[in-house]
Design goal:
This protein is an alpha/beta fold and 300 residues long. Helix content is 39%, strand content 20%. The strands form 2 sheets. It has a 7-stranded mixed sheet, with helices on both faces. A 6-stranded parallel sheet has the order 2-1-3-4-5-11, with helices on both faces.
Length: 300
Amino acid sequence: MPVIGYLSTRSPGDTAHLVAAFRRGLGDAGFTEGRNVTIEYRWALGQYDRLPALAAELVRRPVGVLASTGGEPAALAAKAATSSIPIVFAIGGDPVEQGLTASFSHPDGNATGITLLTNILEPKRLGLLRDMVSRGATIGVLLNSNFPPAQGQLRDIQEAARTADLRVRVFRANTDREIAGAFHAAVQQRIVALAVAASPFFDTRRDKLVALAMDHALPTMYHFREYAVAGGLVSYGIDPSHIYHQVGSYVGRILKGTRPADLPVMQASKFELVVNLKTAKALGVTIPQSWLLQADEVIR
């Protein structure tokens, strides 16, 4: 029975729905866990420094395919651990820039996968927040500086702020204490709205972030629909369930003999704006009409 190594930056608790989507993708290729394939799971729980050891553990197992999920940290750890075992990744940015593949159309190596493009959508999220704040107000951005693409995210945020004539203040958080401190500092500094930059570390603390935003009455924008469903005010990005389904499908095709080099890197193409009106009412904020006109989903 073939063995799949499933390496995740996140935790089993916050990704149960994504793992289910991954299994459905495997099922499309004819594989069912426990019947004709085994899956070995390794979770970093948002702690990036655990990933190299977890990847090495799976390589020693050994596994037939490595599925690395939860962004760049897992993919980079998998790539460093093996140059021969096929890797299927799900990341938020550019795999060529990160050194994971030679190109999108011809990966030309042992790794391929899907990019969610969520890391490069920070300017769009800032633009949406601008529609709900008064001119001259300051918008905060919560950034996980330990996340490999963080420098690029910061660069994009600063450029977008200059272009839109926005005042932006960046709060860096790499621990639970720093997250709580960032929300407290944002309120003390009269930040009127906050954007949470994409990061697997933040994803593992989704409920904590949503609760802190409510406790501090701070309108907050997120990058995945699951935040809005959990009570966040608004999210803009892809539905990661579709991406994890595709990862499972690619893993299944590789188990059937397709080479990673023959599977082009796919890019997310559908982005969703989700607005939670229940949260807006609780926060006492007025949702801009532009949001409601663009929204793909409104939670009432």
